[in-house]
Amino acid sequence: MKITLVKLCIGMIDAGKAYNAANKQFVSGIRELAQQSAKDEVIEVNRNIIFDLRKFKEAKKQFDKVSEEKETALSKNAAAPRNKQHEVEEATNILTATRKCFRHIVLDYVLQINVLQSKRRSEILKSMLSFMYAHLTFFHQGYDLFSELQPLMKQLGGQLDQLVVDAAKEKRDMEQKHSTIQQKDFSNDDTKLEYNVDTDNGIAMEGYLFKRASNAFKTWNRRWFTIQNNQLVYQKKFKDNPTVVVEDLRLCTVKHCEDIERRFCFEVVSPTKSCMMQADSEKLRQAWIKAVQNSIATAFRDKGDDSELDRKSSTSTGSLDSGGEPKERSLKGESALQKVLAIPGNACCCDCGQPEPRWASINLGITLCIQCSGIHRSLGVHFSKVRSLTLDTWEPELLKLMCELGNKVINQIYEARREELGARKPQPGDPRHEVEAYIKAKYVDRRFVRRPSDEELRSKVVSLSKQEKRLSGNSEHMPPKAPPPTPKLRPGSNASGQSGQFREYSPGLQLYWASCARSLPDMAEALAHGAEVNWVNTEEEKRTPLIMAVQGGSLVTCEFLLQNAANVNQQDAQGRGPLHHATMLGHTGQVCLFLKRGANQNATDIEEKTPLSIAVEAANADIVTLLRLAKMNEEMREAEGPYSQSGDETYQDIFQDFTHMASNDPEKLNRY
């Protein structure tokens, strides 16, 4: 047993010696291979690339760091309140310095990228060329095969020389730009954004904006927004799938937001929701607003008729003012279309004559084809509020407004001097830019409106004031007011049989008396002549056209003024707004209309009376019910949060009933 163990031990020692000898040979072979490979071109290229990558990584670290600092500076600048100037200036200075540093680092970063790219291309091609020449020398037997590659190798050699020259030139250009930009003043620097609808990828505009979240905290987050293929989308990161904010820009409108603390804000409003966004500067805000408006106009031009769209409520512009009534309780689009097109002149587009228009401008009272409606929408809501005759629902008072005006009446006002000036009216099929130029001249510049003479204006005002006097004589419960003015011509004119103090006649005075006389054509004419919709008559207790429309008792007249931006809360010298006057006169329909349009029912007059206290004193049960119901709904919305948009369904149903009753069966409301 011992002998066997000794033999095994001797065998193990011999095997160990053999293993050590073999291991030494293996290590020697590895070392020899490493020495031979050290001269290999591929390893040499990798070594050079690794060295260049270190510089690139260092530049990338600096770029990432300064990017975070810029994001922080942008956030602080955006959050700076407009009423704290020192914070605004401090945030602006920090942002300017950070931007300057960011651009320097970006230039260095781009320079490293370009140097790395150029070296990588040239070194690899150089190694490849050396490799092929080595094979040509070494493999004599394969000379015939490799000789076919000689033209290619010569071509690669020429390309290599050109790449080296291009890389050197590019490096010099980058260094020159780097030194030039270092001397540039970035104090007024803004990102350059341009609207371009003809891009191959369909992106009309893109850039960073702050977006207000829809959660309870209403936080602001910076996102990458894109206007693409008639949609507004945004991404948190470039690799993320885009989130669609607006599926169809034709159903939207865009407006400035000046009533919040943050600066440079604007809002895109769709039929179902709204999106509040903030730009980095006023120039960028204007650029985005213009881009959205141009995209809307382009979508109307390119996509043709919308009759195949789903029946959504495209409450853009004017329809937003009316609140969200249930569709089943509003007038359907088909009946609205039939009634509006039945008015003389409405069967064709007001501006180009295209038959069967399907759109309308509700503050002008005209019908439009799809191309002209897109142009009107791009003008902005202060000129024209576009609404669909087939896709939207129509409130009764708005439908009556359309029926009392129409294309014939408006064209008599806005095209009075067209033939005299020799202007050509567009025809169906004319280029869009020609139609757009005509519409802007007609409604924005009012080039074809005939300005009245002093005598014509005086006669118009006198006629309307007399008409108002006849109407007021048949009205009961009218509060005492100053008598109509005794018209008097300006000095130098003859006015036999007239006396009284000097009075200045103006389009505002015409609008004032036309509102009380319930004459919508005269009101539209006064606005076309430049009348201010909130004009104040200082000689009659500072009353406005809207207050006179209340005294005239016409719901449609009030609707027309409100659609043209009349102030529903403007008070007279007695501290009474339109809601006060409508309550005093017992005009239930007007009270309902003003409450829907945001009238302040808590406002008090000089006698400290609110509309509710006036209605209670007069024992007007309908108005008391409306006021209390509106106040209760307002309290419920305040309890839900400052950004609550939903109203109580019972409240909406009751107000809708009163709206229909006031427009279709007003006798039922004559209980006062």
UniProtKB/TrEMBL annotation:
Keywords: ANK repeat, Cell membrane, Coiled coil, Endosome, GTPase activation, Membrane, Metal-binding, Repeat, Zinc, Zinc-finger. Residues 334-456 form the Arf-GAP domain. The keyword tRNA-binding does not apply. Residues 303-331, 459-501 are annotated as: Disordered. GO terms for molecular function: GTPase activator activity; zinc ion binding. Residues 202-297 form the PH domain. InterPro entries: ACAP1/2/3-like, AH/BAR_dom_sf, Ankyrin_rpt, Ankyrin_rpt-contain_sf, ARFGAP/RecO, ArfGAP_dom, ArfGAP_dom_sf, BAR_dom. CDD domains: ArfGap_ACAP, PH_ACAP. GO terms for cellular component: endosome membrane; plasma membrane. Residues 303-313 have a biased composition (Basic and acidic residues). GAP activity stimulated by phosphatidylinositol 4,5-bisphosphate (PIP2) and phosphatidic acid. It comes from the Eukaryota. Gene3D superfamilies: Ankyrin repeat-containing domain, Arf GTPase activating protein, Arfaptin homology (AH) domain/BAR domain, Pleckstrin-homology domain (PH domain)/Phosphotyrosine-binding domain (PTB). ANK repeats lie at residues 541-573, 574-606. Residues 314-323 have a biased composition (Low complexity). PROSITE patterns: ANK_REP_REGION, ANK_REPEAT, ARFGAP, PH_DOMAIN. Its main location: membrane. It is a peripheral membrane protein. It is found in: Cell membrane; Endosome membrane. The BAR domain mediates homodimerization, it can neither bind membrane nor impart curvature, but instead requires the neighboring PH domain to achieve these functions. PH domain binds phospholipids including phosphatidic acid, phosphatidylinositol 3-phosphate, phosphatidylinositol 3,5-bisphosphate (PIP2) and phosphatidylinositol 3,4,5-trisphosphate (PIP3). May mediate protein binding to PIP2 or PIP3 containing membranes. GTPase-activating protein for the ADP ribosylation factor family. PANTHER family: ARF-GAP WITH COILED-COIL, ANK REPEAT AND PH DOMAIN-CONTAINING PROTEIN 2, CENTAURIN/ARF. This is Arf-GAP with coiled-coil, ANK repeat and PH domain-containing protein. It comes from Oreochromis niloticus. The gene is ACAP2.
